[in-house]
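User: Let's play a game. I give you a shape written as tokens, and you guess the letters that built it. Ready? Here's round one.
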């Protein structure tokens, strides 16, 4: 698929991990931008990605996020985050974004990163690695699901006022 430089910059910054989320993210960007060049690029990229299957759409986005290089310094926060993720080689997690609003909710007490081991898991798809910000009750349910073999918690941090306090320093993902 041939994308313009502006379309590549937009795809490079996408945080969503599925087609519906990707299209929604682009549609919101299109709706709230005041720059005509960004509005034009989002409309064009939306049209191109809508014509693809879910797998094809995400293959295009993943390829750009892995291989695209910005022609100059990152201009936006999204570009800076995408560049840092690309340089670190960190895998993109499904679930909650690291800076998602869930992290800052007053009742959020835990952040977990886990692998989904079973098709019977109440969240995620088998084989996915996910991040969730949880209340105390949500964390207890996650521990129960780990005991049942549905998930395997790989990393845990206590959350206080949006700040993450990891259990072990070597476990920071």
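Assistant: Ready! My guess for every position:
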């Amino acid at each position: 698929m041939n994308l313009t430089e502006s379309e590549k910059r937009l795809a490079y910054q996408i945080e969503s991990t599925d087609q519906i989320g990707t299209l929604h993210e682009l549609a919101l960007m299109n709706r709230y931008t005041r720059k005509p060049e960004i509005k034009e690029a989002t409309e064009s990229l939306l049209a191109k990605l809508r014509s693809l299957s879910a797998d094809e759409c995400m293959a295009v986005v993943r390829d750009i996020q892995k291989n695209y290089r910005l022609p100059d310094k990152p201009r936006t926060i999204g570009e800076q985050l995408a560049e840092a993720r690309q340089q670190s080689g960190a895998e993109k997690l499904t679930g909650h974004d690291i800076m998602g609003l869930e992290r800052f909710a007053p009742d959020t007490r835990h952040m977990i990163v886990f692998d989904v081991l079973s098709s019977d898991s109440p969240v995620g798809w088998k084989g996915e690695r996910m991040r969730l910000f949880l209340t105390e009750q949500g964390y207890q349910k996650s521990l129960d699901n780990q005991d049942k073999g549905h998930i395997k918690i790989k990393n845990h941090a206590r959350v206080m006022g949006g700040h993450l306090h990891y259990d072990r320093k070597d476990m920071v993902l």
